[in-house]
Amino acid sequence: MATIDSMNKDTTRLSDGPDWTFDLLDVYLAEIDRVAKLYRLDTYPHQIEVITSEQMMDAYSSVGMPINYPHWSFGKKFIETERLYKHGQQGLAYEIVINSNPCIAYLMEENTITMQALVMAHACYGHNSFFKNNYLFRSWTDASSIVDYLIFARKYITECEERYGVDEVERLLDSCHALMNYGVDRYKRPQKISLQEEKARQKSREEYLQSQVNMLWRTLPKREEEKTVAEARRYPSEHKKTCSILWRKMRHCWNHGSVKSCVLCVR
Questions:
Q1: What is the H or E stretch that residue 130 is in?
Q2: In whole angstroms, what is the distance from residue 40 CA to residue 246 CA?
Q3: Where's the SpoVR protein-like N-terminal domain (predicted)?
Q4: What is the rounded distance in angstroms from the CA atom of residue 175 to the CA atom of residue 204?
Q5: What is the pLDDT of residues 211-221, one digit of tens each?
Q6: How many angstroms separate the CA atoms of 205 and 201, rounded?
Q7: Dist CA 68 CA 266 (whole Å)
Q8: What are phi and psi of 49, to 5 degrees?
């Protein structure tokens, strides 16, 4: 098997100046592809797009997706990102990669040629090879249909707005977006315990921590426990899942096919 050193004997040093051209990107990409084959990386075909800072901020607002359905929150996110970027309070990514087939990589046009080479190797081959060969990704995601589904979701939301009205669809999407960053705990929560049991557990934890210190501290007498006037609840009761509460409120309309499909479009 050939090594990198043996492959580099007949190669010419590439330009590492700050400026880049599309022809130079092709040369770098060919060299990166050669090294990737040396390591036997199995990747999807890649699609490279060079974008401006404004286009990158637009990608930020749509969670990196190239296509999305219309919603006011995306515009709000764009304005927030633009304001922070113009005031120097936030930088932008060198690249964004989409785990699709083909693998789509967005590169910032402000990058130097060295940075472009790094992000092409990182996104087009590193990320690409990882998610293509990750068994969890392959089990739950069809990389070849990601972009097609985004197109379907955008078209479906637009059709629902025409059929049921913009306000109705917007209210539903607002509810979905309010929950989209929260997960659902499928495990059974422990039962509530009394204040006495919680105090006993706390005392047991404190005694365990005390046993971990050195012998000098073990010789100190234990402090007498302070007596409380009333057994006030110091620990709040566990709240029910927010998702479950809202889900019950929406259950009466969940059987409507359009509502269910709209919810599934939110990612």
A1: helix 128-133
A2: 49
A3: 19-240
A4: 43
A5: 776 555 556 66
A6: 6
A7: 9
A8: -125, 130
pTM of model > 0.85:
no
Beta-carbon count within 10 A of 114 CB: 15
- For 55-60, the CB contacts below 8 A with 24+ separation are 55/106, 56/92, 56/93, 56/96, 56/106, 56/108, 57/81, 57/82, 57/85, 57/92, 59/96, 59/106, 60/92
DSSP code, position 228: P
Judged on CB neighbours under 10 Å (0-12, 13-18, 19+), 165 is exposed
Q: In the prediction, which pLDDT does 105 show?
A: 94
β-pairing, 46-51 vs 95-98, is: unpaired
From the list 113, 123, 106, the residue with the least C-alpha distance to 21 is: 113
